[in-house]
Amino acid sequence: MTNEQDEVFVLSVCIDFKSPYAFVAHELIWQLEVSSGYTVNWMPLTLNIGSFLGRAEKRNDGKVVDSNRTPKQWSVVKAAYREARCYAENQGRVLRGPLKIWDSSIAGIALIWAQNHADTRGHLKDFMTDVFDRFWQRECDIEDIDILNIALSNAGIQSEGFIDYAQGAGRESHDILQDQLLTQGVFGVPSFIIEDEVFFGREHLDTVIWRLNGSQGPMPFVRYPWQAV
Amino acid sequence: MLDYGFASLSVHMLVDLNEPESVVGIKAVAEWARDQDQAVRVWPFLREPINTAAEVPKGTPDFEAYKARRGLARRRYKDQERRRNLQRLSLNNTWKFTDAGATLVHWGLVRLAEHEMSATAVSAFVLGLVSSNKVLDTGCVQAALLEVMPVLASEMRGFDEAAAKADLAERSLALSDQGILSAPSMMYQAEVFSGIAHLPRLTALCRRQTPLGSR
């Protein structure tokens, strides 16, 4: 894809299936791909949430059974979920807070696989939407390699070989990628990468498009799209 | 809880003028307020930025190394975003308030809000100040405040920096208790919106909740 100055841009987007912000952003990013004509290179950034928000685990009834979070960390987490739930509901999506901090690395490896093996962008979108929607309804165990294998297959993506990949080369690619992304300055999701520039959060979608289109005119302000998608 | 007379049909914006993000926020919200014909009051909120990672108990060396690398990535990103915000303000360099200048300008913001000054006027005042490429001391803040609101002259004669600083700290603490985590933030009918990116949602809320003809 080129802009008016014939510069070639690649738009990479980092997500993590366990992030509520990535959940409420992914449909918007797919819309950006359709409207802008730029093909998105999806990349997993597997967050270590315990390293910046502490850890917590709840029972099914919501009672906290294990946590090292401070009141300030809880208030940040609660505000984040309150906000994300509001945007999810406006999109007609269900967002139920997870009961534990999931290890989403296998889902991230499945994303790499899906991107490399999906015959069409529609298949890739179907896979991502299915995993996102079911995970946030607490109906998809993203730590279970067999469940992700079935999700690939259900989306019409070749799944044969995925399990071996996830336990070998896929894991290696994933881990190297985490290292590279951190070095590049990517620390949260969704993040958008255009050349060396990073934009963190869906509020930058307008600025990302502006940058992709050659930075003509004033740089837009940040905004979370609110119109239901 | 302190009562700052937050009118329920107004949007209240909380800012820290030391940060480009807040100044960009004032600019964006002022444009929005004008377009939406929506009352907005701009108030100070001066708290240390939240760093939740600093409160995470120490872990293994690998865990600590990850925390350090993520912290570095976050700081690098903040620098990028600061540069973008300066670009949004058409500025090349960031401004710097002296301690006393910062106290006076935030004290002044409270007075402007209490006098129900529009966000458009506050935006013009703030942008004029930070665009001057000077170290912003009490002299230039005072001149800018008097230009935008001459009636402040008598109040400013009795300005007590220490008392103003204590008052700003108390106000910010009270706002923290109401759920404000950082600046810029917005409040509308007791709901808190962190950052200015929620303006599209706020538009929908204000349209729904403001009776026709009352804005």
List the helices and strands and how they pair.
The complex is a heterodimer of chains A (229) and B (215).
Chain A: E1 11-15, H1 20-36, E2 40-44, H2 50-53, E3 56-58, E4 64-67, H3 71-90, H4 105-117, H5 121-136, H6 145-154, H7 162-167, H8 169-184, E5 191-194, E6 197-200, H9 205-212
Parallel strand pairs in A: 1-2
Antiparallel strand pairs in A: 1-5, 3-4, 5-6
Chain B: E1 11-15, H1 20-36, E2 40-44, H2 61-88, E3 96-97, H3 99-114, H4 119-130, E4 135-136, H5 138-148, H6 152-157, H7 161-177, E5 185-188, E6 191-194, H8 199-209
Parallel strand pairs in B: 1-2, 3-4
Antiparallel strand pairs in B: 1-5, 5-6
Query: Spans of chain A with pLDDT under 50 lasting ≥5 residues?
Result: 1-5
Mean pLDDT of chain B: 91
The CATH class of chain B turns out to be Alpha Beta
The second-level CATH architecture of chain A is 3-Layer(aba) Sandwich
Question: CATH topology of chain A, which one?
Answer: Glutaredoxin
**From the helix content, strand content and strand pairing of chain A, which structural class follows?**
alpha+beta
Mind telling me the CATH class of chain A? Alpha Beta
- Oligomeric grouping of the chains: heterodimer
Question: What is the domain total for the residues of chain A?
Answer: 1
Main sheet: strands, sense, barrel of chain B: 4 strands, mixed
Percentage of β-strand residues of chain B: 5-15%
The CATH architecture classification of chain B is 3-Layer(aba) Sandwich
CATH level-4 homologous superfamily of chain A: Glutaredoxin
Report the principal-axis shape of chain A: globular
Strand adjacency order, main sheet of chain B: 2-1-5-6
Kindly state the number of beta strands of chain B: 6
The sequence of SSEs of chain A as H and E is EHEHEEHHHHHHEEH
Quote the beta fraction of chain A: 5-15%
